[in-house]
Amino acid sequence: MIELVVFDMAGTTVDENNVVYKTVRQAINAAGYNFTQEQVQSAGAGKEKSQAIRDVLALDGNDHPDTEVQSIFADFRRRLAEAYDTLDVTEQPGASETFRELHSRGIKVVLNTGYDRPTAEKLVHKIGWVVGQDFDALVTASDVETGRPGPDMIYLAMALTQVTDASAVVKIGDSRIDIEEGQNANCGMALGITTGAQPENELLQSNPTAVIHHLRDLLQLVDQTSQLSR
């Protein structure tokens, strides 16, 4: 029986026109590089953003000191704050409806993200969601010691919702690292979704339970699992 679904934010439940990874690329290339958008999303999707920058830089095969990473990260945060001030952020199609349907089944809903808490809260506010009303909790990369693909954010989500059995948890996200996070937490299902950073062929490389194409597709999988557990 599924008790909790942990959703990624950008690309999964939040539509922000891919501004985060576009901004990661802008900040890195402003420091003298020439990475493509595809490279940035392949290496950085779903990760805490300073780690994403570090992993993109590593693609050139050179050593990059932490001071360089942190300088680019600071520039990224400045650029992202400016972008979010004017960006029209919306939910991904069907997100609120899916949350309501899960709640009607007695299933908790948590959002988790590679953003820091101030950025995540800004996104939630722009959409108009309310923690404790539209979903049950928000867990961000700045709330834990180790980000994705480590399981810490999912463990915190379970603690906040009083779910003790990881096999009763579903993790869903639009990047391979989301899937790997769910697997590392021993979730009952670790799902990919094709609405965001990485296409189906990339998501399948992490051997997800399934790849879906719309958030509402999740409900059928949850219902099938519930029927099998009876």
Automatic annotation (TrEMBL):
The UniProt entry, under InterPro entries, shows: HAD-like_hydrolase_sf, HAD-like_sf, HAD_sf, PGP-like_dom2, PhnX-like
Q: Keywords in UniProt for this one?
A: Hydrolase
Q: Which Gene Ontology cellular component annotation is one that this UniProt entry carries?
A: cytosol
A Gene Ontology biological process term: DNA repair
Q: Which GO terms describe its molecular function?
A: phosphoglycolate phosphatase activity
**Among its keywords, does the record have Cell membrane?**
no
Which NCBIfam families does the record associate with it? PhnX-like (TIGR03351)
Q: What name has this protein been given in UniProt?
A: Phosphonoacetaldehyde hydrolase
